[in-house]
Specification:
alpha+beta, Multidrug-efflux Transporter 1 Regulator Bmrr, Chain A, 2 helices, about 40% strand, DNA topoisomerase type II (double strand cut, ATP-hydrolyzing) inhibitor activity, SmbC
Length: about 160
Amino acid sequence: MHYQIQRVAERTLAGFHLVGPWEKTVPKGFEQLQAWVTTRQLVPREWIAVYFGNPELTPPEALRCDTMISVDPAFEIPPNSEGVTKTRLAAGLFAVARVQVADGDFTAPWLSFFTAVSGDGAHQLREGPVFEIYLSDGSNGVWDIEMYIPVALKQAE
């Protein structure tokens, strides 16, 4: 899989935090987010899913995700926005890949991406959430996304 290493700026995010199996919580979170954005007539900069936990080590019911939009740092959560949180996504060095996802299979490109980055001779995985930015809405069954994995330069041995 082709990817690049990029220094990524901090982002301010607003949206929903969910806990449970990602195949259920992510679609539910984006439904909630879409309804909130539409009701409040917001104009999102980006639509983002942030993933916490390793699905190979964390039980599905304990996996966490944020379904968010990026907002200006001065953004104030409007009244009557129950469940909406504001947070930040830390800046740092990331491996970044752009892919198309068909048939809702987001797992395959993520596994391929992790395999590629894990084999990188110059970089290593670092602690922090992974995230994806949606470049299309998937209304035609295909999503264009950018995937981000936090990395650091490998230390000389």
